Amino acid sequence: MACAAHWMMEQWFGGRPVPVQAVAMVAVDPTRRGAGHGKAMMRSLLMEARAAGAVLSVLCPATLPFYRGLGYGCGGVTCQWSAPPIAFAKPPSIASVLRPADPLDAAPLALLRRPLLADGNGLPDRTEALWTLALCPDGEPADLFRDDGGYIAILPPRDRRLAVADHCLPAGATLGGAMSLLAGFRAQVERVTWSGGPEDPLALIAGDGLRLDAREEWLVRPLDVVATLERRGYPAGLTESATFEIKDSLIYGNCGRYHLEVARSRGNASKIEQVVEAPASMEIGTFASLFTGHASARALWRAGLLLGEEKMINRLQRIFWCPAPWMPDRF
């Protein structure tokens, strides 16, 4: 009647890895839709993941209303960029000569990518299957080029387009080498396409012709509020506290009032019965967007999704400040 694929992985928020359940390929028999089978299956998956230690569930949705009804909220974005190869014709003054590498050996690439996980927000620590999807998106290995600072993987040109399958370009020299590589295709293709975040390095440095072709949102669903709050990282040097109430119509154990203390980039959370200060209040889907940093506390407050006194909203604003969450992976 209904089926889905799911697995455990880690996704980085606030500079720390958080155990999550990744969900994909959710489907219900067309003749049985509308009878609640999909919701029942998803509830079972969420409870199974919670029991296994996952504190979040993450997925790329085919439809929003169904998952919003299950308590998912927008967690971050995937941006689809494109530019003509000539946009990369003037690389930085320092540029590496990238050497071919084996796309079937992801171990050295994972080491190169690790600093991005800690500095960014929302990137998954890829499993073997995710590495295969990233580097062999069409079933065939991409052409991989790297140096000691990063890498770029490209697919063979098709229909006058060159697709970047994956990239990690944290250093200026590596970025310069990647730009020279892409510019070298200007006689063969009209556009270079790639996935990235709002502050993607190729997008920041590209010249005329850069275009944001699509911006897609992925969803997250908190499974255990206390564990969720204590597993992520927080802004360095911040000492702050906040009290808030969460409503969750699916996982009743998440309902209640919470007190969060943040110090030395760590959070200590607990459920409380009595409060000294009026708590802020939100639904679990709103908490999801606040937790990841996809939406700030003040933005959610102005939208009427987060309720409370302004001083408490400002505390939440400081606690959950982080870079805009994104991930290039789809599953």
TrEMBL record:
Keywords, comma-separated and alphabetical: Transferase
PANTHER family cross-referenced by the UniProt entry: N-ACETYLTRANSFERASE EIS
One Pfam family of this chain: Acetyltransf_9
Upper taxonomic lineage: Bacteria, Pseudomonadati, Pseudomonadota, Alphaproteobacteria, Rhodospirillales
Protein name (record): GNAT family N-acetyltransferase
Gene3D superfamilies linked to this entry: 3.40.630.30, SCP2 sterol-binding domain (3.30.1050.10)
InterPro entries found in the cross-reference section: Acetyltransferase_Eis, Acyl_CoA_acyltransferase, Eis_dom, GNAT_dom, SCP2_sterol-bd_dom_sf
GO biological process, one term: aminoglycoside antibiotic catabolic process
Domain of life where this protein originates: Bacteria
GO molecular function: aminoglycoside N-acetyltransferase activity
Domain N-acetyltransferase, first and last residues per copy: 1-93
SUPFAM superfamilies according to UniProt: Acyl-CoA N-acyltransferases (Nat), SCP-like
